[in-house]
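Hi everyone,

Forwarding the result from last night's run.
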Amino acid sequence: MARYGKAAGKSVKSAMHRKKRGTLKSGKGGKGGTVRSRKQAIAIGLSEARKKGAKVPRKKAS
């Protein structure tokens, strides 16, 4: 069984493209700095997918 849905993959792909172009921002409402980290871009993509209701596993409790 796949852990992530196709919509989640699309969101992450979109975030990665935005990172590459330098338009991906971090923080609430994109008020933070430009994202440079690959890991951060993936996290933002998954977060956006979660908000859209895509199939994404729950965040691990830290």
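The mean pLDDT is 92.

Cheers,
N.
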